[in-house]
Amino acid sequence: MKLSNNAYDIMKWICLVFLPAFTTFYGVIGATIGTPYVQETLTILVAFDTFLGSLLGISSMNYNKKE
User: Fold this and answer.
1) Distance, CA of 54 to CA of 60 (rounded, Å)
2) Using CA atoms, how far apart are residues 54 and 50, in angstroms rounded to an integer?
3) Among 60, 54, 48, CA closest to 2
4) CB-based contacts of 36: which residues, under 8 Å, 6+ apart?
5) How far apart are CA 48 and CA 50, in angstroms?
6) Of all helices (H) and strands (E), which one includes residue 43?
7) What is the pLDDT along the chain (67 residues), one digit of tens a residue?
């Protein structure tokens, strides 16, 4: 499956900027107001971000091998 450059750039921004910032925001706000299951949600968000980052890294490696 090929990603367009635009799709790759969007996914990279989500993995490197949005998800870490959102996870931090959610953790701070959730802990402050006593939202239940904050730790569990943070664990899932970090695991998801790591998963997406790994897929993008593999995609990038494969693309660079072809060039």
Assistant:
1) 10
2) 6
3) 60
4) none
5) 5
6) helix 38-66
7) 677 889 889 999 999 999 999 999 999 999 999 999 999 999 999 999 999 999 998 888 888 887 6
